[in-house]
Amino acid sequence: MKYLSEFRDPSLARSLLEQIARTVTRPWTIMEICGGQTHAIMRHGLDQLLPPEITLVHGPGCPVCVTPLETIDRALAIAARPEVIFTSFGDMLRVPGSSDDLFRVKSRGGDVRMVYSPLEAVKLARENPAHQVVFLAVGFETTAPGNAMAIKQAAAEGLANFSEITSHVLVPPAMEAILSSPQNRVQGFLAAGHVCAVMGTGQYVPIAEKHRVPIVPAGFEPVDILQAILQTVRMLESGEAGVVNAYGRVVRDAGNPAARAVMDEVFTVCDRKWRGIGTIPGSGLRIRDELAAFDAEKTFPVGDITTSESPDCISGLILQGLRKPHECPAFGASCTPLHPLGATMVSSEGACAAYFKYARRGTS
Fold this sequence. Notes:
The protein is an alpha/beta fold. 41% of the residues lie in helices and 19% in strands.
């Protein structure tokens, strides 16, 4: 396959590594936002191949990781109700709440079903008018258009038995929060290519200009990531701030206008709690008031459910690039993928899960 052979080409990767080594003259700390990029870096050993001057830290770009624990507990409470068919993508089924997960709810008789699209959940609502069908809608700007489309379709069909429990988060406010922190150590960003494919690159320009940092939209294959790192290092070395697109085969400056339009039609911006970090102003999407009938947290009495994180977990520091996973005393001991304590070990895309899977137990 030409795509894989081109973007996983070892000779091209070596050439990019050599160019990075020739370019870098001083230490730089670069954050990759996306959990998919983190896993690609770990899987291909890019973190160990880069010059020692470059430190990669791992951002809050894993949607499962940053879904608040209380949202999971509210979903579990809804899923346990006898009148509910609860639907979710597969990666959310094993995410633990305070004391349970969706698999356990299913084992006790809850009607919990994995779907591959939110429109499958709409179809289930159409076919099961005697049941309430709920879809767990989480993620970044990449999944929001599809989840918005499901609500739009249900509204068009008058399906009063369909709703979503929604926990969408937005990347730019998280980047702004990281850069504005007095503890910030990030000097440049690899932006998530799939988010930029939806939203475009313009939203990052004010952040780059305000904080005088390079922001480089990047893909997910080794060559994609190394090309983006090279571009970021070049900008850092020259003192250049701004946005340079290193994922041009997918990302356009305007993003996907149709996807953005349906998001705006169904959702509105709100403050959002991020698991492990806390509330970031203007960092989330909620269902618009005129579509409140499709908001499961208003349909079911779960709004009072609140929870707290394990005090032994430092995932908030990891998500902000202030610590590495192996610097947590619980890592690989009381916290493992089968028994996660916090956000970054919960999901297979999380930084702690990546370090555990690819045996990064020491410095990296």
